[in-house]
């Protein structure tokens, strides 16, 4: 929101009007209110404005936590209260102690008023000063913003396969109750209802030993991704003919670790081109490579190129087994970060493994965007928001359900918010059968970017 200037005073004492140079909607007022008690500050879920009626405060939860931080830094024992389901400003006839309500509101282009308000006893000068300081800080954070969501939540082929397998195993029309969200990390037990359950293997597969341990009184549903299954078969076949298998991926990924257990005595791991010169491999060894399904294709190709330089007779699996999901997610995250002043990572907690995956996708940025991890709206930093016009958001698969939507609502309480979702996608094209690659009349129907990527992938697969 543009810089604001005070232009006049209105009738009520201590009531100041601020006018937005563009929209002329931003108003800050100080009005009489019922005290929340000395030593306390009440942050309101809504308040009544003299001209606008009821004003919602979507950002109140964040501002309450910000005020607590300010109080702690100042060494104050201020009690900050916020009841999201509360009735708004305190009511009642007892005005003996008196209080002031500091409020700010604006109207978006749809005519909806939003803002924030805090109430403090007017005799509590220390906390009055604290609220004034906080109000100036929050006022500085008000502006029109864009929120770009990195679309990385769409299920991959493996998750869709696992969901289909579970549905086929269920007798109650596929209605199942999951003990945990279905993702790529491990599915565990699925309740099918009526006391029945199945054990669903992880999308990245499990070995015979793990499968034996999983065999208890319930049916085992193979949730292994079809592409992962092909990679596992390739590793087993290459190892069986005596090859040293170079597995391209990261030991930090559960999928890569599971693949390494297919033929551990014949498998070595490489995650970057710089790893290749230091690989301990006999000069006369036959070398084959495989790519972990969890590894971005573009990063894997750099490793393959380095392998070919050291081992010109390199063999390996065909590229039709590569999974583009990791690449698409990494590119969506990078594209959002490149367009943003601040990048938020929505996570379950600080140990969420998805944070590492998102940070890896951000590592290639030429100009690094500031990154903050948030597990709830209270983690938002008001000072950082004040400098951000475009905010990016990528949520891990383990983040609390609805976290992205909740953050969107909260940010919408700090100025008009436009939300956009950005995604990347890759499509297979059959060179033999796709007429659009042979008949110019079909050319306008081709997404040129997708076609170039697909043609490049096909040409390097031989």
Description:
By secondary structure, the chain is an alpha/beta fold. The chain has five domains: 4-142, no CATH class; 157-223; 227-321, 4-hydroxy-3-methylbut-2-enyl diphosphate reductase, catalytic domain (Cobalt-precorrin-4 Transmethylase, domain 1), CATH 3.40.1010.20; 325-422, 3-Layer(aba) Sandwich (Cobalt-precorrin-4 Transmethylase, domain 1); 430-462, no CATH class. The protein has helices at residues 60-73, 125-141, 157-169, 208-214, 226-240, 254-260, 297-310, 325-338, 353-362, 382-386, 403-411, 448-459, and strands at 4-9, 16-20, 27-33, 40-43, 46-49, 53-56, 79-82, 99-107, 113-121, 145-150, 177-178, 188-193, 196-200, 219-221, 244-248, 267-270, 287-291, 315-316, 342-346, 370-374, 390-395, 417-422. The strands form six sheets. It has a five-stranded mixed sheet, covered by helices on one side. Strands 20-19-21-10-22 form a five-stranded parallel sheet, sandwiched between helices. It has a four-stranded mixed sheet with strand order 11-12-13-14. The longest helix is centred in the first third of the chain and has 17 residues, at 125-141. It is elongated, with a radius of gyration of 29 Å. The two termini are 55 Å apart.
């Amino acid at each position: 929101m543009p810089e604001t200037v005070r232009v006049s005073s209105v009738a009520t004492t201590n009531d100041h009007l601020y006018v937005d140079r563009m929209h002329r909607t931003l108003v800050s007022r100080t009005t009489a209110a019922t005290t929340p008690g000395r030593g306390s500050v009440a942050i309101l879920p809504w308040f009544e404005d003299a001209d606008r009626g009821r004003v919602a405060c979507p950002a109140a939860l964040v501002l309450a936590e910000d005020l607590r931080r300010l109080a702690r830094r100042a060494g104050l024992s201020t009690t900050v209260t916020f009841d999201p389901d509360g009735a708004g400003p305190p009511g009642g006839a007892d005005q003996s102690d008196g209080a002031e309500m500091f409020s700010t509101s604006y109207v978006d282009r749809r005519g909806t008023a939003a803002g924030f308000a805090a109430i403090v006893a007017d005799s509590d000068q220390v906390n009055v000063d604290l609220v004034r300081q906080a109000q100036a800080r929050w006022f500085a954070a008000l502006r029109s913003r864009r929120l770009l969501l990195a679309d990385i939540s769409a299920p991959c082929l493996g998750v869709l396969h696992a969901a289909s397998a579970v549905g086929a195993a269920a007798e109650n029309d596929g209605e199942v109750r999951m003990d945990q969200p279905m993702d790529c990390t491990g599915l565990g037990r699925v309740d099918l209802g009526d006391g029945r359950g199945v054990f669903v293997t992880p999308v990245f597969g499990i070995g015979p030993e793990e499968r034996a341990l999983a065999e208890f009184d319930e049916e085992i549903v193979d949730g292994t991704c079809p592409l992962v299954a092909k990679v596992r078969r390739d590793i087993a076949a290459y190892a069986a003919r005596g090859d040293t298998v170079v597995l391209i991926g990261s030991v930090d990924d559960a999928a890569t670790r599971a693949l390494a257990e297919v033929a551990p005595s014949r498998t070595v791991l490489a995650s970057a081109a710089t790893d290749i010169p230091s690989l301990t491999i006999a000069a006369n060894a036959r070398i084959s490579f495989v790519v972990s399904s969890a590894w971005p294709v573009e990063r894997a190709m750099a490793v393959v190129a380095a392998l070919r330089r050291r081992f010109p007779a390199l063999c390996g699996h065909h590229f039709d087994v590569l999974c583009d999901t990791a690449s698409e997610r990494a590119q969506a995250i990078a594209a959002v970060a490149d367009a943003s002043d601040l990048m938020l990572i929505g996570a379950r907690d600080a140990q969420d493994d998805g944070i590492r995956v998102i940070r890896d996708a951000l590592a290639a940025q030429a100009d690094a965007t500031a990154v903050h991890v948030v597990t709830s709206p209270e983690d938002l930093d008001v000072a950082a928001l004040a400098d951000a016009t475009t905010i990016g958001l990528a949520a891990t698969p383990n983040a609390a359900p609805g976290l992205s939507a909740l953050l969107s609502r909260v940010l919408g309480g700090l100025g008009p918010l436009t939300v956009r979702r950005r995604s990347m996608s890759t499509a297979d094209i059959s060179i033999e059968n796709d007429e659009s690659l042979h008949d110019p009349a079909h050319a306008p129907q081709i997404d040129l970017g997708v076609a170039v990527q697909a043609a490049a992938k096909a040409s390097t697969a031989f």
